[in-house]
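The material for today's practical consists of a large collection of protein records. An example says more than a description, so a record of this kind follows:
***
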Amino acid sequence: MNRLKKSKKALIIALVLILMVLGSLICIRYGKIKNTKNFTIGKVIDSVRRKFRSRPTNAEKEDKKVVLSDYYLSLKNSEAADKLYIVKMNDKELFNDLIRIMNRKSADKTSAVLKLIRNIELKKDFLFSTYDEIQEEKQLQIKKEIETLESIDTLAGIRKIERMTNEYNDYMGILPYVIERMEDEKASELLFYIDNNIKEEIMARLDVKKRNDLEKIILKKEIKDDKLQDLAKRYDSKPVEEVIKEIGNEEIYSIEELSYIYMNLSIEKAAEILSKIKEDEFVEEIFVFLRREEELRKSNNSKTVEINEAVKFLREYNSKIDELVEVYEKMSASNVAKITEKMLENTEEVTSLKIDSMPIYEISDSTIIVDVLRKMKKTSLSKIINNMNTKKASQLTQMLASP
């Protein structure tokens, strides 16, 4: 019994000690928290106090406005107007307050300054309105130029651009904008033929995408030109009758493509082909576009004139050959044979066509008689050869067989 009482007493003492320790800990912890809170609140209160102390009072604000108004009144009218205009643009309320104070101190000076401020505003408005007007005129000019260049022939467009660029310094200022807004096909065609210096300056000012698009189209045109030049070289070595089937009409190539092919043929070949084409309208059209192509490419030597001279020469010559054919067809074979033998012996030049002192066609008696016999009926030709001596007949046969 005594042992049980002692055990209870010991347990109560232990619990009291534990409670005392916990209480001490809580007091210590609470004290720290309280101190921390008090420190933080104190800092906030100090900060707020400092802010309120830093803010000017209404009286202080009014004092500063008075000082400013005195300062502006001390300046020259023009200087005061310039400075007050800036104030007005940034703080209208402050501006109105300053003018009120200034007017109270010096109404005449304030009135004069206000007039100058209004003049500044009018000038600014005029400047902006003038700028907008110029911009509008510029846009209309660009639009009009686009419509013009897209509606006229490429050659006329290039001439206009090059003339305007040379005569008016400001034309290059709008030209890149014009090219940039034009249809790609037309713009690229102009750039393909135009003076290289103008082209480079335009391309440098274009938007990157527009420049890339135009460069692709121009590259395709260059590749096409190379192919047409190669075709011309091939046609130069082919028989005239074979070539006429392909470039003696517009079935395979356009008139523009044909003109560039003829431009790259030799004068002799181009003239031989065109002299044998019976459609005069087609031949005339070839010459028109050939001349146009030369002007577009700014060719120094005009092949058009040279080819035209050669065609006239050949047509006149062929006309006379046809007349001789009719005459010889009516003569006896023996008489024609004698004439043929005699003419074959003469290879000296009878007539010729020279361009720039260079012989294009050289005509002799032997070439004349061979050309006549080529056009005669086969039956008539065989009779003539039968009446010739063997050596001359062999010589004639070889000449007739050559292209």
